[in-house]
Amino acid sequence: MPVTIKDIARIANVSTTTVSKIVNNKIDDIGDATVAKVRKIIKEENYTPNRLARSMVLKKTKTVGLIIPDVQNPYFTKLVRGAEDAANERGYNIFFCNTDDDLDKEISYMNMLIEKQVDGIVLAGASHRDKKREKEYKLSIPVVVVDRDVNFTNIAGEISIDNLQGAYDALNHLISLGHTEIIYISGSLGIKPTTERLEGYKKAHVDHGLVYKEENIFFGDYSSEFGEQIVAEVVKNKAATGIFCGNDMIALGVIKGLTRRGYKIPEDISVVGFDDISLASLMTPELTTIRQPSYAIGSKAINTLIDLVEKKKVDAEKLVLKTELVIRETTSRRRK
């Protein structure tokens, strides 16, 4: 039979209350010798606290949910790793949910996680939103949003990056190399990263006295497949010598599509991505991109959520992290 808290108390010759306090690290009024003795017995007896009983007493399950839209996107892989490491450090377990970028699945997973009595949720929302439906949804636990905006009320925190500045830096780099006709290829226009990066693209044009052209903007989804497919439209603009992609996956597809059509990168066309996924430095040529701290986003989101759960923070938190231009091999000076 498994060892119980009563067994530990009997062996240590202390009360079950004392053992419970030590298990929950509430040891301010317990002597060091007693703490050491009980912990030694717990280890020797391979005692594992009953999580269900603890959650009933503490009204906490020490579990959180993490909902992401695309588990295959390397950006979210890094984010998940950061979240998992942070949760482990804080003694929490995580339920991972992948929505396939579908709002119905997102809400279904939120209901499931709440039924499982998680203490809170970190949410990277699906691309396509339903404002009316979300406004009617009542959140009963803290939710921290990452990467994308959502319409749920009472969001407890938000962790994002300076998308506008990141895009501006990408355009500024291309313009500094002499490129003046620059294409922007990105995901759905309805989500925060796309719209804010578009604003950075526009601002760079204004600041450098360049003409902004709607026909140089292409929206689709954040996949390499879209990047490769849209090249057929992009190459119709013979004056374009630079391409800014909304993420690295699009950039990988764009480079593949251009190469198949006989274009040399960066000799004929310079390409900049966004994210700095691991593939960016492994491909040939290596991808110039905007690095965003995806691991830190996941870590900070979980720590913010747990602080809210544990009442270390009670006010809504909004953090905006900086990006960094990483210059590699897919950009060069425009040919005369």
TrEMBL record:
Superkingdom field: Bacteria
Entry keyword set: DNA-binding, Repressor, Transcription, Transcription regulation
Molecular function as annotated in GO: DNA-binding transcription factor activity; transcription cis-regulatory region binding
SMART domains: HTH_LACI
A matching Pfam family: LacI
Protein name: Transcriptional regulator
Organism: Clostridium aceticum
